[in-house]
Amino acid sequence: MRALVWNCRGVGSPLTVPQLKESVKLHSPELIFLSETKNRKDVMNKVRLQLRYDRLFVVDPIGRAGGLAVLWRNELQICKVLYTDFTIELLIERTGARDRWWLICVYASSEDQIREKQWKVIEGRKSLWGQNWVLAGDMNDILSNDEKWGGCRRPERSFHTFRDFVNKNQLIDIGFEGIPWTWSNNWEEGKEIKERLDRVLCSRQWRREFEKAKCLHIQNEASDHAMMLLDTDSCGRKWKRRQRNNNAKNEIRELRQKLAEVQSDGHANRIGKVRELKKRLEEAYKREEVFWGQKARIKWLQEGDKNTKFFHASVAERRRRNNISCLKKGDGTWCDSEQEVATEIQGFFQELFTSSNPQQIESTLRDIPLVITDQMNEMLVRPVSELEVRNAVFSPQPNKAPGPDGMTSAFFQHYWNVIKADLLNAISSFFHSGQLLKAINETIITLIPKVDSPVLVSQFRPISLCNVVYRIISKILVLRLKPVLNCCISQNQSAFVPGRQIIDNVVIAHEFIHCLNNRRFGTNTFMALKLDMSKAYDRVEWLFVLKIMEKMGFCKKWRDWIFKCMSSVVYSFNLNGEKRGIVIPTRGIRQGDPLSPYIFLLVSEGLSRLLSSAMVRQEISGLKIAKHSPALSHLFFADDTLIFCKANKEEAAKVMKLLELYGKASGQIINAEKSSVFFSKNTKEGEKAEILDTLGGMREAKQSKYLGLPLVIGRPKKQVFSYIKERVIRRLGGWKERLLSNAAMLAKQLWRILTRPNLLVSRIVRGKYVRGSSFWEVNINAGDSWVWKSFLSARELLEEGVRLRVGDGKQIDIWEDKWLLDQEYGKIRSCKPQPCHIQRVHELISDGNWNVDMIREVFEKEDCQRILDIPISKCGGKDRLVWSFSNSGEYTVKTGYAVAKDLQWKKKGVCQQQGSSSRNEFKSGVWKLLWGLNVKHKLKHFVWKCLQRILPVNETVRRRTGQGDDRCCCCGERTETLEHMFFFCKHAELIWKFAPINWEGLNEYRYSFWHWWGSLMEAQVRKEGREHIELTINVLWQIWKSRNLIQFNREGRCPGLTSNKAVQEWLEFQNVSIVKMEDDEKGRGIERGPVKWEPPPENVICLNTDAAIKQIGAKASWGVVARCMEGKLRGAWAGCEDRRGIPIVEEARAVRHALVLAKQNGWRNIIIQTDCKRIVDQIRDGKLNDHLAGAVLFDIMALSKDFSSCLFSFVKREGNNVSHQLAKFALKLVSEIAWKESFPSWLSSIAKMDVGAFAPNLGSSVFK
């Protein structure tokens, strides 16, 4: 069906009827809805006759205002017509089908208060329309400022009413084709305002049935509103339908049919067959869910939840958004057929991917230094290992879009143990021969719209879908390239380089633009150029990539690998689900290839070096924002470019010359129309015009965005950042807005500036604001930037958890700094004795150990013990800042948020109350249990809402809104509170009677859901207690769903069926979880079984370590056992010291003892086994910031480099029994003990039990 919807602004206009006749002739709508007709039925009947329509329904205007009319032909079956003063509601029956749907024709008021009441009327009437309906017409409102062009931006609160109406009723905007606005005030001289006031909104059910429905905006001259053509069965271009391989759907249909036949059969074995068919049906439903989940690309919904309808809706919406139904050619004409669309796309990309024959490459690269060493090249081209391939296979998200072969990473991950040998051979073949099959590197380009309703090929973003095998090769190359990027990419580039972040560039850009805005006087004027690179990835010249890598020192073998990855590609295109066309490129890199961003970094380094060298030669000046900050000529984040120089014609001309040189060599082109220039405030208008002309017609920018954030931030910050809020709200849809902890995130940036002083952002910020003084004492000045003021607002939070970890002790002030291990205070509590000249911590250290006598003489007993608990580096480790609230010693937003909450409570004085502290501790236990349960995420959120008392039961809705009936919809006897709905309603009581679990012992707590849940938690300690709690949550959820069926659909469900449904879903999820865990373990090669000691390879010594702590008496001991491949003891050592041990520290000390002993015995190839996984993980990742054991970890890393090979392995306690027993024995010692030739019988006996056993390595790291 086609319906024409139009606010005609009066049918009496001389252009209205002719425009309608023209639209009827062009589009043949079966129905026309006209609003604001301003004429009565007799006039509208004449219009009907002129347009040759059969039927008419009219809502007369009030005076000369308003008026609605619907005209339709007899072939359209209208079963019922209802109306209000602003709607006409039509019940339409689809031809040849029994199902019906409602078309609600709307003309909303232009007055906000009246319109708000109209939305409430529609909410009240929607129960008449069921689940299948669509709203179309003039809504007289918009959802955000993105639907408005010209005029002032509307305040965010003005959108709330319409947005809430759409979200509350779960309406879907079907989108549009054509012009993006539907109304214009038609003013001239820059005062024109355009808005999208008219739209089509539909229910989810209607959208599922009319998946192809679309809305076309049609311009006209008769009204200031555009016409809308709603086409429910869009078939303007009949694309060939693709065969969809959803076998699960067909299987479900067949199984349900068989199940019905068997259930009606009276055969004796009927029950067994029914059970078998139900099992197969359950598996088919799971496969269907996985199928649609993969197609929907929804990551934040977990599998195991029946979201098939949601997934299907997501796929339908994505198909609608990505569908290409029409394209405008380069000559301005339109493509009329599928073939023409495919030809236009292929022609565009064939031209784009054809080389421009680069020139002047040598001149462009003359300043590129040789940075890649022979050792780095050896690392880059080493033989590929199974571990590398495995890491590359398991790194991507399993269900990312498949390539031309249709395979996703999920297949390779799931069947890793089966295919790894063949896959390793295929990958090794490339790294050995340098040849890559074209079939492996075949690529499909999917075109993603960059704008709403794109009509040009250039308005699409080409995303490349590569085969998984190629992506594995590409990922291996990336993982090898990453470690050397810091050497070959200058600090001005912060994209994709390990240790650098996008926020660095945002901070630097804001500081430099702030400097330009504050430079109001003087003759030195400066400017910032924000450049837009046109199709940056697609224009990269391959020859330029090879030449710049050669200049940097990359070996030929590596260059050949990269060239083969770029040049062996063959493109085809995904056009509405079909593979079309073919393009063989001679330049360009792919968006979607893991390697492409890193290749582009190398390309952009050519421009970076040109600009840096020009600044060194004083051809351009760069910009220096403070005396102690470095001057900066440019700032890159991938292809986002900012260039800083003096605001004069000479430097502008030099910049353009450099950009031209770079473009000829690399293929890059600057889009002058999208580029802009910021001038310092003291730049004269005449000078600006000359400079802009020199820059090729770039425009001056007063405000712009860089990396998605506004560059200029003045006083009205609410207006500046309103667009971010709008984008978040559009993403969240009907979800309520939540506050985030800005302080915790800001503190993370402060932490980076403090702990990484060599970063470019740290040097700039420190040079401008700190200037040699202590960071903790810096004051806020009036001229400081908004970014810096925001950072300092988080200083109190950071100060709460920052500690100085002792290395050599030379930088730590004993009396002023926080350097003790406890989280609460961190400072020495003892008063400084007089006279006392000891000031620095290193004065308390003697020969790598604490000077115990001096410490006991100077400090009080409690402080003595706190100092002696601190481990000291014996290999020259330095003092460094650590975050005391995380195990890694690195600041995290999660721990920062927790600290921020504690600070907030402290300021309110709540934490000082014992009762409040206990209550908070109890709540913490409640949340910890809830989030750790093995139930669906939506059920956890449901219980959380119940505990927070925000579940929308009738009493809560009435209390918060003052509207609605608060009586229980199920029994109608009492007010529907949370407790009544779950426990006292007769409907709920029946469900609990049928449930297989009974909580009658908690009846006394039913009057408070919080207390009832708190008592329920106690069941977790008993056998199968957690499973019973998980089943209980499913019962609560089904009670809520059953209640909603009665409340909204007037549908009741048998209590027994409700209870059975809860049990069924619980068992289903439990089975899926177990299978998933087993599959994950199987895919990763993890085998369960008894854990024993693992013997080392030949000529390798295995040293097992462990530690023990005795709290009473404050003793800490360690034990080390050395064995060879045959399991024979080669040595055993143990020791004990008087101190309060910290487990992680003592385990690290034991490992350090093992390394020292191995070195003393002259062993060159060793394996260290420990049952402390945290130690192994931190060594493997090279993370030495552990705030407790960091100093010892530094020593371990330093000592491990003295061996030919040193491997660290985690083994469970059962496989580390010998050293464990030895460490426990050592608690009785008064001095260290060693055995080399003969060993105690008890130790030999334990060691013999381990000989010949095998245990898998669960984590390791190798150092040479």
TrEMBL record:
GO terms for molecular function: nucleic acid binding; RNA-DNA hybrid ribonuclease activity. PANTHER family: NON-LTR RETROLELEMENT REVERSE TRANSCRIPTASE-LIKE PROTEIN-RELATED, RNA-DIRECTED DNA POLYMERASE. Residues 429-711 form the Reverse transcriptase domain. This is Reverse transcriptase domain-containing protein. The lineage of its organism: Eukaryota, Viridiplantae, Streptophyta, Embryophyta, Tracheophyta. Keywords: Coiled coil. InterPro entries: DNA/RNA_pol_sf, Endo/exonu/phosph_ase_sf, Endo/exonuclease/phosphatase, Retrotransposon-Effector_Assoc, RNase_H-like_dom_plant, RNaseH-like_sf, RNaseH_domain, RNaseH_sf. Residues 238-265 form a coiled coil. CDD domains: RNase_H_like, RT_nLTR_like.
